[in-house]
Give the backbone structure.
Amino acid sequence: MSKKLVCFVEGASDQKFLKILIKNIKGKSNKKTKIDCLSLGSYGKLKSKIKKRIQNMQSSDNNFLIMIDQDKSDCRERKNEISQEVKIDKNKRATKVKIRVACRQLESFYLGDLNAVKEGLNIRSKKLLQRKTKKPFSNPDDITNPLEELKKLTGSKSKNILSKAITPYLKIDGTNKSHSFNVLVTAIEHLL
């Protein structure tokens, strides 16, 4: 049986983002891990279904990644809620499960790499890159509503379009200004 990474996310744009990001990380590492990325529709649905899903897919060759948005909740509380849900019976095989929280929303990852936003959306304005060192872009995980901030910078675009356009250009070398993005990349590298 070959190694497999099973990812659980809240929505379709998260799913698109994660598929592209993992493909980029795999390409740099030459790992042969199979990937399965499932969108469960919302945080509430993910929370209610996650334990059963992991139990049904449990095998010695499966690793699991759960990515959720912090939204307006406390980051640690949100992670602990999911941790409580995924506790696996001790009699079953041990599995590797990583839970990662996008501080506020996934779009903070994009705001952490404005070069990727510029490239992915083909923005010609030099003003965009001048914002990198200014608040709130110097620490995008602190932005209350990253999606709205991103829409102000780029014009109104759907979350799916943003994921598809920007994610291929995100740097995975630790230079993204979003700490939660860098922690996610490290977790994926570990699970592959």
Summary: The first strand starts at residue 4 and ends at 9.
